[in-house]
Amino acid sequence: MIRQRTFAAALFTATALLGAGVAPASAHPSAAAVSCYGGAKSLTYHYSPAAVEYGTYTTSSRCNDINLRLITDEPGVYLDACVVFVDHTTKCNNGDAYTTHGTEWGTVATDVKDGTHFVLRIHAYDTDAQNVSFQIAY
Q1: pLDDT tens column, 33-62
Q2: Element (H or E) spanning 52, and its range?
Q3: In this structure, are residues 55 and 118 in contact, taking their beta carbons and an 8 Å threshold?
Q4: Do 66 and 112 contact (CB within 8 A), yes or no?
Q5: pLDDT on residue 34
Q6: Strand partners, 95
Q7: What are residue 33's phi and psi, to 5 degrees?
C-alpha cells in the first residue's frame, strides 16, 4: 500500500508540473546539445586584391575548431582563409598558410582553446569571388 501511495504522489507531482507548464529537469535541453554550427555567424566578403580581416572574435565551448563555409549559389567560387591568434602573433595559423573553402563546412583552425581571441583573414581564391556570403562557427 505504501508503494502505491508513493507512486501516486510522484505521478500527481509530475502531472501537476506538466500541467503548470514546467517540464521535468530531464526534458530541458542542455547548452552542450546546441550544435557548433547552430551558432554560426554570417558575413559577406567583398572582393579585394588584399586580404580582408573579420573580427576580433572569441572562441567558445560550443566548437572545438574554427569552421567556415560559403553560402553562395555561384558554382566554382571559393575563398581562402586563415586565422590569426591576435594575442600571440600577427601571422596566420598553420605556418602562415591559407586553406581554400567552398560550400561544405571546413576547418580553418583545429583544437582551439575556449576563450581564444582571433581574427579571420580572407582573400579571394580568384576574381570570381566578388561578393560572397559565408559563415563561421567557433
Answers
A1: 468 999 899 999 999 999 999 999 999 999
A2: strand 52-58
A3: yes
A4: yes
A5: 60
A6: none
A7: -75, -15
Cell of 110: 583545429
**Which positions ≥6 away from 114 have C-beta within 8 Å?**
59, 60, 61
Q: Is 68 exposed, middle or buried (0-12, 13-18, 19+ CB in 10 A)?
A: buried
Q: Which cell numbers hold the place of 72? A: 553562395
Q: What is the pTM of this model?
A: 0.71
Closest CA to 97 of 112, 108, 113: 108
Extract the C-alpha cell encoding 92: 596566420
The residue among 74, 51, 70 whose CA lies nearest residue 120 is: 51
The reported pLDDT for the residue numbered 110 is 94
User: Under 8 Å CB-to-CB from 72, ≥6 apart: which residues?
Assistant: 103, 132, 133, 134
Residue pLDDT, tens place only, 58-91:
999 999 999 999 998 788 899 999 999 999 999 9
What rounded mean pLDDT belongs to the chain? 81
